[in-house]
């Protein structure tokens, strides 16, 4: 039970990162290799804000930071390359990721950072396992983010416009949907959810400048499990990744947990690139 | 690139180039002090890694970041074998490279089913898995690493000085550069560039794509592993960090800096990256303090990667290439030869008259069935694109497939050529059932095809593009394409001659060194026909060859089809231009809504009410319709 509860919080985090991947991929066809580092930038934004603001507001600042960094990346690095091949665009996100990671390291150093949880108090005990209150906030935040995005995409006009854009960018352009505006929204939303949720995790563990790569890879697995398409399944995928990681760490060795999760990524990509869905996302690129 | 076209030969020039290369290397090794010699040797190793990336990413167009893992296998393999088991260094190097090669080949097949970002992410995870594994494993010394490895012993001569590392590393670099340059001119190199350009077209030309990708990945794994072994014998100590993502990014940076399309890009990029690193190390401590060098260096590398891609996506090599081209044009005036089309003697473009003329040239006598399709069916979800179609193509006949837009013509051809698997039904070529074969396997049964929109390969001239079609006319593999044996050179000459013959026949010879993608649409279509013909097929499928052709070009294409028929080829042509269809075809197969509407001679079809209805979309009065025999598009 403890494993499940731990995986629940971790899974919400991976799922949120996965949703960040999915939104950008759905709307622009790209995979953002800087996703993890953008989330870390958000978390550090929250760390800075927490010195003057209450934790909940600091997490809001984290989401905002993630969104701003993400949008800046789109306009400075990706937008100028929109006529280049997807490979060039991918490489550029790798470059941005490195730049963000090392900039954070230059400013904050390599040491861990933390801030106070939203609600203090002892952990909640459920069926013999315990979960910190802050983790409940994290899970809640992810679910709220998911519901908000799902509502946005399926119910609102802008959301539907975004979906139309993802189906056929040319046709969307013909009916007056701006490519740049839509991509900006996509990058903003993806940076906000990833940055906000990672910021919410900082009080329970801590954040380091170099965390982005591993986080990004795990979020990517969640996105693969969601078929790079379905937000809900991506959350489920995040939970699965986290559960595997927690179980391996507990029963085999903590040092090997990441190795096994990354091996899982390779196997999953090769054997079942459509993840939990029926459609093959890998064919679309 | 004119080098694509020049036939593969071993000449005195290679000797001179090798002598110059070795001369420069020796000069540097002799003049540089130990510090710079050490740097030079390290740059050589990075250049080797980047060369591996040029093969996989630059040539074959597959974005892989697996370089760190194979580099590590070479370094750790050499160290483990020599230190723990006392092997002779060179033997250990060969074995480590073999292990990397075998492993590379084994994982390449499943891995390269992925494309684009997904391949990049999987290979990135692979490098990360290798890094974490050696970092956690006890027998590799964990995160502290392993020492005790001796300098490489080259038949009694110990390579312990930095100068000797420079010589060995850069001689190996020179060999690999030469191999990769040569590969580009050969059969396998062309196949790789074709895969990068357009996979379906490469497969239709008979290129076995999964195999070609796996082999080039293996070659790259071996090169990376050799680089790793050289690294281990140079530093005499291995620990995990150099074999993680950091190196993969450095190598990517080199490839981006230098340009990925040419092996020279790897060499230029490796040197440029080191210059940048040296510059950063000289300047940064003054700006940010010594503690910030590591992160600051990474920040600059990350930013540079972005800036270079935004400003100059083809890297330094691309910029140099432009510069050289500019200087050449300035010096020699505009020496680019004006492509002069041979003056066509043809005056008449009247299709009917031409057909009569063609028929007088010799009778077409349809022979045995070459391809036979039975009950072909293709469903896309709820849509049935092709519905239970039977079709026979005979030797020496021109069969036209016509039908309104969306009738399933292209889908039908894609199923015949193996580009699309049918939902049901069978396709037989000769006596062999090819239904479930993939495109490159079908091509082996001497079927070639063209595409509705021309599928040419980026950065290839017309001669090389057409020569890709002769892929199955040769059998020189990747190794012999890079290290040409006399037999390989002979084969390449034969392919060049066969290509030249087809180019001449189709009036393309004057365009041979033009970039195929820069031609007019009509010319691109004819280049595709040439690529299909050079494979010497017995069955050729043409998907709307007339789109973009002018009247005279259409007339000569029609004459070509008639001539091919007389030579015994089976020709299937999809076309909307009815004048062309009626003049060139022996039989016409009409499709409507995926079903066969009518099969018959041009005259029969032209007078068929159902066909007229399908085209005009209205049920006309029967008598009127019979009179309006001219079915226009």
From TrEMBL, chain B:
This is Branched-chain amino acid ABC transporter ATP-binding protein/permease. GO terms for molecular function: ATP binding. InterPro entries: AAA+_ATPase, ABC_AA/LPS_Transport, ABC_transp_permease, ABC_transporter-like_ATP-bd, BCA_ABC_TP_C, LivM-like, P-loop_NTPase. It comes from the Bacteria. It is found in: Cell membrane. It comes from Occultella gossypii. Gene3D superfamilies: P-loop containing nucleotide triphosphate hydrolases. It is a multi-pass membrane protein. The chain crosses the membrane at residues 12-29, 35-56, 87-106, 154-181, 216-237. Residues 371-618 form the ABC transporter domain. Keywords: ATP-binding, Cell membrane, Membrane, Nucleotide-binding, Transmembrane, Transmembrane helix, Transport. SUPFAM superfamilies: P-loop containing nucleoside triphosphate hydrolases.
């Amino acid at each position: 039970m403890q494993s499940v509860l731990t995986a629940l919080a971790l899974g919400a985090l991976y799922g949120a990162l996965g949703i960040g991947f999915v939104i950008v991929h759905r709307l622009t066809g790209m995979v953002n290799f800087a996703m993890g580092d953008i989330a870390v930038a958000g978390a550090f934004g929250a760390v800075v804000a927490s010195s003057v603001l209450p934790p909940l507001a600091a997490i809001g600042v984290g989401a905002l930071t993630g969104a701003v960094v993400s949008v800046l990346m789109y306009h400075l690095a990706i937008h100028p390359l929109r006529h280049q091949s997807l490979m060039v665009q991918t490489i550029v996100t790798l470059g941005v990721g490195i730049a963000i990671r090392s900039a954070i390291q230059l400013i904050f150093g390599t040491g861990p950072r933390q801030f106070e949880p939203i609600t203090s108090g002892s952990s909640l005990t459920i069926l013999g396992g315990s979960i910190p209150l802050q983790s409940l906030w994290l899970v809640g935040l992810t679910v709220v983010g998911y519901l908000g995005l799902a509502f946005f995409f399926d119910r609102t006009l802008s959301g539907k416009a975004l979906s139309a854009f993802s189906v056929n960018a040319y046709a969307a352009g013909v009916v007056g949907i701006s490519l740049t505006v839509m991509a900006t929204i996509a990058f903003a939303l993806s940076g906000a959810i990833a940055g906000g949720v990672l910021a919410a995790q900082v009080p329970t563990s801590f954040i380091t400048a170099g965390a982005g790569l591993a986080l990004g890879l795990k979020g990517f697995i969640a996105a693969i499990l969601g078929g790079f398409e379905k937000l809900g399944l991506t959350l489920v995928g995040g939970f699965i990744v986290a559960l595997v990681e927690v179980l391996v760490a507990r029963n085999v060795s903590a040092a090997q947990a990441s190795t096994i999760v990354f091996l899982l990524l390779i196997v999953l990509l090769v054997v079942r690139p459509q993840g939990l869905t029926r459609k093959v996302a890998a064919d679309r690129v | 690139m004119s080098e694509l076209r020049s036939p593969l030969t071993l000449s005195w020039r290679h000797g001179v180039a090798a002598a110059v290369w070795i001369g420069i290397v020796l000069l540097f090794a002799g003049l540089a002090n130990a510090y710079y010699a050490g740097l030079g040797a390290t740059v050589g190793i990075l250049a080797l890694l980047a060369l591996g990336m040029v093969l996989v990413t630059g040539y074959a167009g597959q974005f892989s970041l697996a370089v760190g893992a194979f580099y590590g296998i070479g370094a750790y393999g050499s160290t483990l074998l020599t230190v723990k088991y006392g092997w002779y260094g060179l033997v250990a190097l060969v074995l480590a490279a073999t292990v990397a090669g075998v492993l590379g080949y084994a994982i390449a097949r499943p891995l390269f089913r992925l494309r684009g970002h997904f391949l990049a992410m999987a290979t990135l995870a692979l490098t990360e898995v290798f890094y974490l594994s050696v970092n956690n494993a006890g027998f590799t010394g964990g995160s502290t690493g392993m020492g005790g490895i001796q300098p490489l012993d080259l038949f009694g001569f110990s390579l312990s000085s930095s100068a000797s590392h420079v010589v060995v590393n850069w001689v190996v670099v020179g060999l690999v550069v030469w191999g990769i340059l040569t590969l580009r001119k050969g059969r396998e190199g062309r196949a790789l560039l074709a895969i990068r350009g357009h996979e379906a077209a490469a497969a239709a030309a008979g290129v076995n794509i999964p195999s070609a990708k796996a082999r080039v990945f293996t070659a790259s794994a071996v090169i990376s592993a050799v680089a790793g072994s050289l690294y281990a014998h140079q530093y005499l100590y291995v620990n995990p960090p150099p074999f993680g993502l950091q190196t993969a990014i450095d190598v990517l940076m080199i490839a981006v800096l230098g340009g990925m399309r040419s092996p020279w890009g790897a060499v230029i990029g490796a040197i440029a990256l080191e210059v940048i690193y040296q510059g950063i190390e000289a300047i940064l401590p003054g700006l940010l303090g010594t503690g910030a060098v590591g992160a600051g260096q990474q920040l600059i590398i990350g930013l540079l990667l972005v800036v270079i891609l935004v400003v100059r996506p083809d890297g330094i090599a691309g910029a140099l290439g432009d510069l050289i081209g500019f200087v050449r044009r300035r010096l020699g005036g505009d020496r680019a030869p004006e492509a002069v089309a041979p003056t066509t003697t043809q005056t008449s473009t009247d299709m009917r008259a031409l057909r009569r003329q063609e028929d007088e040239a010799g009778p077409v006598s349809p022979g045995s069935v070459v391809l036979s399709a039975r009950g072909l069916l293709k469903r896309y979800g709820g849509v049935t694109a092709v519905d239970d179609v039977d079709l026979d193509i005979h030797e020496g006949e021109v069969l036209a497939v016509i039908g309104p837009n969306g009738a399933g013509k292209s889908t039908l051809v894609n199923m015949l050529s193996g580009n699309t698997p049918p939902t049901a039904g069978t396709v037989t070529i000769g006596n062999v059932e090819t239904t479930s074969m993939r495109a490159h396997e079908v091509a082996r049964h001497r079927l070639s095809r063209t595409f509705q929109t021309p599928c040419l390969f980026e950065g290839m001239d017309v001669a090389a593009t057409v020569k890709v079609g002769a892929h199955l006319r040769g059998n020189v593999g990747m190794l012999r394409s890079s290290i040409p044996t006399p037999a390989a050179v002979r084969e390449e000459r034969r392919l060049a001659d066969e290509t030249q013959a087809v180019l001449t026949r189709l009036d393309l010879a004057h365009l041979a060194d033009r970039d195929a993608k820069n031609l007019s649409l009509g010319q691109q279509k004819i280049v595709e026909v040439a690529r299909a013909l050079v494979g010497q097929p017995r069955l050729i499928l043409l998907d709307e060859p007339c789109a973009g052709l002018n009247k005279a070009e259409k007339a000569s294409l029609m004459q070509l089809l008639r001539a091919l028929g007389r030579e015994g080829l089976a020709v299937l042509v999809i076309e909307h231009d009815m004048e062309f269809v009626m003049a060139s075809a022996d039989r016409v197969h009409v499709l409507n809504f995926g079903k066969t509407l009518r099969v018959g001679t041009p005259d029969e079809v032209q007078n068929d009410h159902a066909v007229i209805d399908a085209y005009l979309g209205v049920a006309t009065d029967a008598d009127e319709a019979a009179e309006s025999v001219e079915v226009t598009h």
